[in-house]
Amino acid sequence: MATVEIDKVSKAYGAVEIMRGVSARIENGQFTILVGPSGCGKSTLLRMIAGLETITDGEIRIDGEVVNDVAPKDRDIAMVFQNYALYPHMNVADNMAFSLKMRDVPRPEIDRRVREVAGILDLSGLLDRYPRQLSGGQRQRVAMGRAIVRDPQVFLFDEPLSNLDAKLRVHMRAEIKELHQRMKATVVYVTHDQIEAMTMADKIIVMQDGRVEQAGAPLELYDQPRNTFVAGFIGSPAMNFLEGEIDLGSGRFVSGGGLRLPLPPVSSEWDGARAIYGVRPEHFRIDEENGLEAETVVVEPTGSETLVMARLGDHEVACLFRSRIAARAGQTIRISPVAELTHLFDARTTARISVNSSEIRDKHL
Amino acid sequence: MPTAIRTSRKRNGRMARLAEVLPGPAMILPAVVALGIFQFLPLVVAVVNSFRSFNPFNQSPTGWVGLANYDEIFSDPGFQLAFVNTIAYIVIMLAATIPLALFLAVLLDQRLPGSTFARGAIVAALAASEAVSALIWNQLYDPRGGMFNAILAAVGLPEQPFLIGDTQSLLSIAAMSVWKDVGLPMLIFLAGLQAIPRELYEAAALDGAGPWRTFRNVTLPLLRPSLVVALFMMTITATRIFTPILILTQGGPNGATSNLAYYSYRLNFEFMAPGAASASVVCMLLVIVVITIAQTWLARGPKGV
Predict the structure, then answer these.
(1) Judged by CB atoms within 8 Å, which residues 180-199 of B form the interface with A?
(2) Contacts of residue B214 in chain A, CB cutoff 8 Å?
């Protein structure tokens, strides 16, 4: 168990800087997820922690010790690779035992630990099999077993579920989370899937273009996104954005298309400023009296909820209702956003300017 | 009427099946014919001829002699020496080329500066004409003006009778063949190395394996298929060494460099004995078959690979 500190880490290939001054702190026993679109640098950062990539500038510390120049094998870190990287010529037991053999652990001790971990991961019956004789989910578990058997200071996961089908992914998600709670290990997990991040993480670090956009607990990121990127990336379906101006006099946001929407709390200095109005699909509600008229384009009932794509003035917005909506495509519904749950972002910097607090959210639950 | 329809349908069905089945064999037929005429026919002829006697003047077969040709060559000390030398060439060539090729492949796989040039140079030796290479090495080995003796003299070591010494000559021919042929197993290993996923090395690094243990536990086992192919190719190459012997030593001194390929050639073209030559060629084939089967068995992988 250990704390990982990433301190102003940069990485450049020649003149191309792919990571600039990234700082983050991964607490002891915490499940931290690095998330972001492809090419944002999340995998590179993970590989830097592992020691598989060099660091151009800055420091990475594990339990206070700078590891920039420590070889991967001396960092006491285990990694689960996206395509598992199991040794094809070794059976499951040998794959799991390999790291212990390399550390000259006595044979009886190796056998005991391999059997123990195989028991935890439900692999006991597969110890004699070779990787090619296993299904994707079983290989995934062997890859985890290989990491667990070592009892390392830090576990690294590099998009471990992306090669599995949807159903198995949900299952493994729960399994990994349960395993983490049981082992209380420090985990750094990379994914591009925000749902994976939201459901599993204690802390999410959202990255883009080699920078950290925001770090925090999943619901913190959902409720108080720092900018439009985080707001759009976290949450599914994604947040709707409308451009326009803040008019504090009437207490409305006036969109480019002339729509007038209720404002969330925002300080008076922003009166008249160009801004981006953000509202999550689930924060629209049907409002027969004061709602804005919207023409439905697509209605997708899933049983538990209804996703409606609707035309609101010039904008197409996604709305998610917990109730069933009778409307069909082409009909008009009246909707309004819950003002306190909407967000305002500076049109120039995309930073959030509205004041949102969890108290406001709690009141509406 | 229904019967007629049924039979016609049946016939149509049979025709359709034929139309489906025929194109396959038809398409490989030219290759099969070419291989048959140029590869298998000579082989069969060699085996058949090894049981026949021939007129030494016009080379026409004169009758069946059973194993007499084999008796004849087995009792010839020249054959025995050629047989032992053939095995010696195989052992020396495998012992030298396989580790050297593996070393070069691992080195080139590091993509150090100059590796493209080095790879080109090694493959160029492979592509060069055997006769031309042998002539170049003939000059290098020259006892007076040759480069090798010049080097030995320069560092104060005794000069060597490279091509005329009893022990040196076979090694000299093997050395040239190693230089010429090491590129083939090297290319096989290089392809094998590049097929090993990078993550396996990363996993091994995180698992705590140093460079040697990674090579021993990850690289080498995963190169096993390449190793089998390389051993097979080099065994055949070593058994067939011929041009350097013909050009550098003509089998001498006293048959010290002769092998079964060269011995068979001489029986046929100098001693006009096609029957005995064929018997010798069959022996050479048997050597290759026995050794490659043994190698395949020794290098067999666990069932997982």
Answers:
(1) 197, 199
(2) none
Q: In the structure, how many helices (H) and strands (E) does chain B have?
A: 17, 2
Helix, strand, or coil here: B57? coil
Contact state of A146 with B205 under an 8 Å Cβ cutoff: no
- Residue A101 in contact with residue A110, Cβ under 8 Å? yes
The residue among B196, B198, B207, B226 with the most chain A CBs within 10 A of its CB, best to mutate, is: B207
Nearest to A278, CA basis, from A353, A358, A333 = A353
pLDDT at B160 over 80: no
Strand order in the sheet with A4-13: A16-26, A4-13, A57-62, A65-66
Question: Using the beta-carbon criterion (under 8 Å), do B222 and A88 form an inter-chain contact?
Answer: yes
- Residue A13, Cα to own-chain centre: how many angstroms? 26
Cα B274–Cα B278–Cα B279 angle in degrees, nearest 5: 120
Question: Which pTM value belongs to this model?
Answer: 0.77
Assess B202–A contact: CB distance below 8 Å, yes or no: yes
B217–A103 CB contact, under 8 Å: no
Mutation pick from A87, A130, A154 vs chain B, by most beta carbons of B within 10 Å, is: A87
| Paired sense of beta strands A284-286 and A274-279, if any | unpaired
Least confident of A14-18, A341-345, B90-94, B172-176: A14-18
pLDDT digits (tens, 9 = 90+) for A118-159: 988 888 889 999 999 998 888 988 998 999 898 888 999 998
The complex scores an ipTM of 0.80
Distance, in Å, from the CA atom of A175 to the CA atom of A194, rounded to the nearest integer, reads 18
Q: Touching check for A163 and chain B: CB below 8 Å?
A: no
Rounded Cα distance between B108 and B121, Å, is 12
Residues A185-226: tens digit of each pLDDT: 899 999 988 888 998 999 999 999 888 999 999 999 999 999
Give the whole-angstrom CA distance, residue A85 versus residue A327: 51
In chain A, the residue whose alpha carbon lies closest to the alpha carbon of B209 is A102
pLDDT at residue B39, rounded to an integer: 86
For residue A111, count CB atoms less than 10 angstroms from its CB and return exposed for 0-12, middle for 13-18, buried for 19 or more. Answer: middle
| Cβ-based contacts of B302 with chain A (< 8 Å) | 89, 130
| Chain B residues within 8 A of A127 when measuring between CB atoms | none
Cross-chain Cβ contact B202/A102 below 8 Å: no
* Residues sharing a CB contact under 8 Å with residue A221, sequence separation 6 or more, in sequence order: A204, A206, A214, A230, A234
Beta carbons of A52 and B205 less than 8 Å apart: yes
Q: What is the Cα–Cα distance from B232 to B289, expressed in whole angstroms? A: 10
The residues in A 99-118 lying below 8 A from B, measured between CB atoms, are 99, 102-103
Specify the DSSP element, H or E, that contains B41. Answer: helix B41-49
Q: Out of 1.10.3720.10, 3.40.50.10840, 2.60.40.1590, 3.30.70.80, which CATH number does the structure's domain B76-300 have?
A: 1.10.3720.10
